[in-house]
Amino acid sequence: MTDARLADLATRLPGLRLLTDAADLEHYGRDWTRRWTPAPLAIALPASVEEVQGVMRWASGHGVAVVPSGGRTGLSGGAVAANGELVLSLERMNRVLAFDPVDRMLTVQAGMPLQAVQEAAKAHDLVYPVDFAARGSCTIGGNIATNAGGIRVIRYGNTREWIAGLTVVTAAGERLELNRGLIKNSSGYDLRQLMIASEGTLGIVVEATVRLTSPPPPSQVMLLALPDMDALMRVFALFQSRLSLQAFEFFTDVALRHVLAHGAQRALESDYPYYVVTEFDAADERAQEAALAAFEAGVEQGWILDGVIAQSEAQAAALWRLREGITESVAPRKPYKNDVSVRISAVPAFLQAMQDLLGREYPQFEVVWFGHIGDGNLHINVLKPDDLDDAAFIAQCEQVTKQLAATLQQFGGSISAEHGIGLVKRPYLQSTRSAVEIALMRGVRQAFDPQGILNPGKLFAPEPVESRNN
Ligand code: FAD
Ligand code: MLT
Ligand code: ZN
């Protein structure tokens, strides 16, 4: 350990696991964006809240930047360490700490994978309902730091709805107990909620108390094929008025081509422009008949061209794979990811405006559209053409995103619906937040982290050093 600061850290915390091998720096220094070259100072893997506190005291003493790190499945570069930062990985802090059946709450360490939290809830016949394809790798701490959404938001809301308490370590190493599992607490600013979606810029989440709920009734999964976006929105309104939806997710023919090429099973014989995977309560025959009637009404109107209802759990999983497999299937094409939201009612007009723009000005790009349409959340993935190098591709995509951000501003939408701002969307924050809002957000950061050592450069550009020290 040649770096004097690291030698001091090892002396202060002799039990702390510290990694400095090149392969580890590379592994822990990047996330799913794969855009930046990892260059962290070292990786710290604390095993307790006290060790996290010790690391932060050391970091603030030496002015070392710290990147909190979960499963590094983030899609906006929030967990990237490319500038000599210390990566603070929560991966060893992955245990259940407590369960209370009266409160119906589970307290876990922040490095616990989302799927493990779901399984821990299930062991008590309850459900932690936030869910999405990265469940096996992402952590509850990362979900909290990004306010993750996923495929069940239409029924259950985002991560924010499910967090009843947080234990947080501040930049200076203090321990905060925020909200402590209380349902009602009108005692001033809700610092717990401020932590959610703060992307590691306000504190390190070390423990979380999550609310659990009863399992939903038995459900059915349906795949629908549709002619256009207008029909899709009409089917959404129809299904929402007649059924109790758990999910309503869309993707295009282009997305389907990629998933099928990646090994998913074809469910319909013909090809169609748009698809929806929807899941709804179907506890009894009446509910199942209502679903069939809604489907037939959509067919009669010409809004639904084809469809299939899963007849088994395996078939339901195969239909879900068509939607959930999209991210992995396009990953080899180094997609430039956009994750935007508008009000649900504005989706067709926004989508049309963007499709017109992309078709007119960027015909060279293959664009994959999919997302959580029932929440007004669209994922617009631009795929890299083989003949374009990475830098030229990103430069062109940034032009696209500039225009996308301007269109979003007209629609009053958001440049990040659920992935966070990180590094990728930092230049476009002002399309979603006003100058006054951004100044207030910077003020909050200054209050929590006056030295600016927590995940600097993420969410907004680092403060110039003079103003940081004022
Ligand atoms: P990381 O990537 O490690 O970090 C994300 C951010 O959180 C960084 O800024 C990091 O510094 C900060 N952070 C991490 N842990 C902590 C902590 N303990 N304290 C403070 N800050 C911390 N996201 C969705 O919202 N919905 C989806 O449907 C969805 N689907 C996905 C599907 C796939 C296949 C993949 C690869 C990703 C998907 N994502 C989705 C994105 C990603 O999984 C989420 O953003 C997730 O919440 C990130 O968790 P993580 O543990 O991997 O966080
Ligand atoms: C999804 O909804 O599948 C995710 O947010 C992942 C992605 O956008 O690629
Ligand atoms: Zn998503």
What does this structure look like?
The chain has helices at residues 4-12, 22-28, 49-62, 114-122, 140-146, 153-156, 191-195, 229-242, 253-261, 285-300, 313-324, 326-330, 347-361, 390-411, 435-448, 465-469, and strands at residues 17-19, 42-45, 66-69, 86-89, 96-100, 105-109, 163-169, 175-178, 204-211, 219-226, 245-252, 274-281, 306-309, 336-341, 366-372, 377-383. It is an alpha+beta fold and 470 residues long. The protein folds into five domains: 4-89, Uridine Diphospho-n-acetylenolpyruvylglucosamine Reductase, domain 2 (2-Layer Sandwich), CATH 3.30.43; 96-211, Uridine Diphospho-n-acetylenolpyruvylglucosamine Reductase, domain 3 (2-Layer Sandwich), CATH 3.30.465; 219-327, 2-Layer Sandwich (Alpha-Beta Plaits); 334-418, Alpha-Beta Plaits; 431-469, no CATH class. The strands form three sheets. The protein has a seven-stranded antiparallel β-sheet with strand order 13-10-12-11-15-16-14, with helices on both faces. Strands 5-6-9-7-8 form a five-stranded antiparallel β-sheet. Strands 1-2-4-3 form a four-stranded mixed β-sheet, sandwiched between helices. It binds flavin-adenine dinucleotide, D-malate and zinc ion. Zinc ion binds next to strand 15.
**How many structural domains in the coordinates?**
5
Structure classification: alpha+beta
Distance between the termini: 34 Å
Give the cofactors and ligands: flavin-adenine dinucleotide, D-malate, zinc ion
* Beta strand %: 15-25%
- Separate helix tally: 16
Give the strand order of the largest sheet, numbering strands 1, 2, ... along the chain: 13-10-12-11-15-16-14
Q: What is the level-2 CATH architecture name of the largest domain?
A: 2-Layer Sandwich
DSSP summary, beta strand count: 16
Q: What's the helical proportion of residues?
A: 25-40%
- Unreliable runs: 465-470
pLDDT average, as an integer?
A: 96
At the fold tier of CATH, the topology name of the largest domain is: Uridine Diphospho-n-acetylenolpyruvylglucosamine Reductase, domain 3
Overall spatial form: globular
* Cα-based radius of gyration, to the nearest Å: 23 Å
> Biggest sheet, in brief?
7 strands, antiparallel
CATH class of the largest domain: Alpha Beta
Pfam families: FAD-oxidase_C, FAD_binding_4
Cofactor: FAD
Keywords: FAD, Flavoprotein, Oxidoreductase
Family: Belongs to the FAD-binding oxidoreductase/transferase type 4 family.
